[in-house]
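The freezer alarm interrupted the setup, so I double-checked each line after restarting. Inputs confirmed:
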Amino acid sequence: MTATGTGPDTVITLDAPPFPSLEWFAELARQMDQQHDEFNRMGTIDCSMAVCLLDGGPDHTPWCARIDFEELTVRQIRLISVEDLGSVDFVVETDLATWNDMVANITANGGRPDLHHTLNGLSLPGTPIRVWSSDPLGRDMFFRYNQTLQRFIDNCASIPPAAGGG
Amino acid sequence: MISATAPHDEDGVTTMTANTLASLAAPPLEASIDEEALAAYEAKFRGHYQIWGTLLEENLDRLGKGSFSLHWTDTSQAHWGTRARPSSRGMTSIDINRPKAYGTIPEHTEQRNFAPRGSIRDQYADRMPTIDAYDVLDKKDVWADNAVTLYEEAKSRQWNSTTDIPWTELEPAGEDLEIAACQLATFLTEVEFVAGDFPARWIYRTAPDFFEIKSFLVTQMMDEARHMEVFRKRALAGGGGLLHASPAFEWALKAILESPTHTQGTFLLNVLGEGLVLSLFRAGEYLAKTHVDKEIFRLCMQDEARHVSYGTMELKGFLDAAPDREQALESMHRFADLGEQIILTALSDPGVLEPMAVLMGGGLKHIDKGMEGAGLIWSTIVEEYLQRCDRAGFHRRERLTIPTTMPWVSAS
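Predicted 3D structure, all chains:
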């Protein structure tokens, strides 16, 4: 629970996880579980994705989380080091400002980003989001599961804004 | 027919055989079927299918005597007790291949019939027919280690262009943009079904011991049927309709369809061709001017990525299992020298490149600007192709026959 202000304009935000944090992605995972039928309609997803925010850590150091998808759920979310990024199927790499801009757009559009703020659209030129992998087959998983990944991220629209972005 | 060669006896078995075979005969022929072909079929039937008649005689004789065979209750050569266990997502093809008795894929098979891998079949070998069409008998010529996973994924991630695309939300764009969208949809309609016809040509030839591959290729055919359908619908849904076919690309499609081996054709289709189309679909985020188009491209992209993954691993499997790897590599290089022209043909075809540039630029007036985006797609296609080749152990960078960047200079 977060309280902003002290007077009559005080706003209390319930369950607003900070960003970036494992809790923020755990909230997306929780929503995925609640939307079982919708995700089931899109099909199963089996891959490990890392989200790496190049300036998301303390003193603008990289902040990286590994998210393991299995079947129709997120099996595990954990922090990983930059050195371990080669162990995932693919990495979604960007900076905090780009991520926050994407989330703001998704939120403003009710969970449906405009044509310029999808994961795929932002990453196609290699910037401002770079999707990379040590294995081309791993990178292709970003394409194979793209609809599910986009829906997973789109659920950020229902996460209340929190201090630190997101 | 068979009864003419079968021995006569006194209890009416021959008559039963004749009647039974008559009832097994093909349905009445349509008038269009060539009489000569039917005569040839009859002659072949009489000449080579006597074992079938003998087997029928035995079975009918047994029935006539009121006795039973019960040979099928002998499980001594079966894998009785070997139990496949479902995983959390149900009983997958991966689960049933876990027991070695059923999941061991032969490097080579002589089974040119329909008898299932893992069944009791060897003792019947001399009474089995031979399906002449089954001439792909080596695992290395079709197998990919990710095929079973991709098959399960394909079943799970099917979609329906009739109901999964929000057709009613298709918004009118400017006329130049709609013409470009329709031209691109025409091209994609034209190319999609070679990716259905090519697998069909090889499914038919692949021995059933490699049924996992046949099954995966069937999903690819279904995917391509859906893509052809969705782009045809897209062209018509905006009122513009189908526009110009591409003579140049027809030659590329012919080259794919008529590839001499499955591996070479899969390289052309799945690594080169589908890799190109995958990048096009990925660029759909820029090409699409509406949510409808974006959804179409995104859904198609997922399907194509499966096909590309299969093609990459099939090539790797072929090279890894080749008895003479250097010779196999050289042979593939020779083939790729020609095959890479498919990328060049598609990306230089004005019926493909120019509508892409118009869509990316935001209109005919901005086609020059759009060419910059098209150049980005060109570079992406070639680089990702080279990376997939590397992944397969097929290093093409030194022998690449096509430009890595688009050879275009603005006239303005």
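Quick read of the result. Confidence is low (pLDDT under 50) at residues 1-16 of chain B.
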